[in-house]
Design goal:
- It contains five helices and five strands; from the N terminus they run H-H-H-H-E-E-H-E-E-E.
- Helix 1 crosses helix 5 and helix 2 crosses helix 3.
């Protein structure tokens, strides 16, 4: 066999492999776009609010970690199946109102105003929200693995010993269920 036949075979094989790889990537991108489109504008707002109120004073890594916990919960069978459902999950009174300090995320029922006060931080959080959702839609790995719980390092919640600590990012400690 001549060298030019070997080279031609190699090139044809590489071109075929490249075409297949492009097809796989395009298929994955279509799936990511479909997954991203399934997140409503309201869910984006809920995720951004959760990041803002839970972690706006944290680094970008800390804000991203909080966002992923929210998404990990949404994907878990143990929590509501929408971002807003996860964010606003709470024990409620007989009228359906959240009970003070009995919410999954403390900001939601701490009795304080939920008004956005710092527009610059809010704009930053919305950008982080969009980037995290794109990563999630592309099925990228969460930087806090499958963590569905976290708390600030200055509190000691009763439930912490029931879970496995997997990461600390800024002032938050992250946990997975075993």
């Amino acid at each position: 066999m001549k060298l030019k036949h070997i080279a031609a075979g190699f090139i044809n094989g590489a071109v075929t492999a490249g075409i297949i790889a492009v097809g796989v990537v395009q298929s994955q991108e279509v799936q990511a776009q479909e997954r991203l489109q399934a997140i409503s504008i309201e869910d984006r707002q809920c995720l951004a609010k959760n990041i803002y109120f839970e972690a706006r004073s944290e680094s970008i890594a800390g804000q991203v970690a909080v966002a992923w916990v929210t998404l990990n919960r949404m994907e878990s069978d143990r929590f509501p199946n929408s971002v807003c459902g996860v964010v606003y999950q709470a024990r409620t009174d007989s009228a359906g109102n959240p009970r003070r300090n009995q919410c999954q995320f403390s900001w939601y029922c701490d009795g304080k105003s939920d008004r956005i006060r710092n527009q610059r931080e809010w704009e930053d959080v919305k950008l982080i929200t969009d980037v995290v959702l794109i990563d999630w839609a592309r099925a990228n790995t969460s930087p806090v693995e499958n963590a569905t719980f976290y708390h600030a390092d200055y509190v000691d919640p009763y439930w912490a010993d029931s879970f496995t600590e997997i990461a600390t990012v800024d002032s938050h400690i992250f946990y997975v269920e075993e």
